[in-house]
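Now for today's protein:

——
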Amino acid sequence: MTQPADFVAGEPWRDRTILFDASEQRMKAGPGEFVIDQLENVEDTKGNNGSNGSLVITNLRLIWVLTANRRVNLSVGLGTVSQVDIRTVVSKLRGECRALYITTKQKQTKYQFIFTYLVSESPRLFSTVEAVHTAYQSTRIYRDIKVRSASIVRDGNVQLLENEEQYQMMDGVWNLSGDKGELGSMVLTNLRVIWFADLDPTFNVSIPYCQALRFQIKASKFGKALVVRIAKISNSLIIGFRIDPLEKLQETLSVVQRLHAIYHSFPLYGVKFEVEEVPDLNVLPLNAARDDVDIVDEDKIDTLANYYREGGGVGSDPVYSADLGLAIEPLPEGFSLQDLFVVKL
């Protein structure tokens, strides 16, 4: 039979990374990404205090752009967000007001962002971001590899997600993750590949196509195997399955490669959200008590240092810097000594 093109997907990054002053191309919505809300008159209080901007909220990230200069921008992937709070700040721009605090972590580095909505007494910024973050967290099974999950298989059947369709189910498939392999069943859907063991269905794996870079047939110590190469964000895993006979293996490869390519033409990330009438400000739950912060307007502070969360580094012992001739705290991810000393005009 005719083999499909060997499709190779790109690394997923929009919801997994934090970008500072990104190019116009990287700020554009990608396949499967859609705008949920856009708010004008939003201040990036921590990094660009006193400057007006716009905040775009998508199903994958938050994008802030300075109105006066689009080259000054932020892209904060929802997958990096660990906490969303509403706190009271004392700002030189608006005085005492409520602001949105977003704590993030990318690799070993923590950043904190503060967004202030300059439209007085409107809860729209708070309600939308909190709701989208909740929707993102509750649909991680669409985007993350899941292992040994009790919710994937019930009574021998895969629990399909919303908008998920099952295309093929095969028994007699060996998972090659162990020394001896494990016999089970494989299910192919329009969103993912699922495998579960015959003897214990809770021994399973769910591989979303958005995490799979490539499907191939390769030699293994168990013979020819269907191999899935996983994205770097999931530690560049290699997962193998043995399917006999060889003709069945080749047929399975053909089907899964087509499903994989079709998925990436318009990915489905699972986040559903509709902008509704915003609730009253006074009934919004606050995740933290009042936190009086005096925001100082210093135009010439390095941008990355502004967002770097105090106490949020790797926490390692001091290291010797040959350039300075003394011991210093380890620099966070993406920093150099020049970044810390050069003043951006």
